[in-house]
Amino acid sequence: GLxxxxxxxxxxxxxxxxxxxxxxxxxxxxFEGLPGALIEAAAAGLPIIASDIPNNREVAGENKxxxxxxxxxxQVLSACIEKMATDxxxxxxxxxxxxxxxxxxxxxxxxxxxxxxxxxxxxFSN
Length: 126
What we know:
Blueprint: H1 15-21, E1 25-27, H2 36-43, E2 48-51, H3 54-60, E3 66-69, H4 74-86, H5 88-105, H6 108-124
Parallel strand pairs: 1-2, 2-3
């Protein structure tokens, strides 16, 4: 029943523009290594709806910028989408928190700092 309402866009080179045009980021992944797409969504200041897997929770935070649903549970996913679509205050709150999480944990400078600290600990701990 989604014909004409959902578009599958295929490979894109304009992800930044698509994220800027989005109201919500939905990530129904079954498994992930490092969910880079969630980091990009946070950088774009988007509220997130994501499958409840450990790596998504690690990136998305503690329910401060995301709603989580069990993997393959389309009914809970649908309820999360409806909740986000009908609650502009929640979207706004989650969007601000996404940007805060990105700036606190995932900027290039922060990642470099964390890597340097880890290397120093590994190098000087022996």
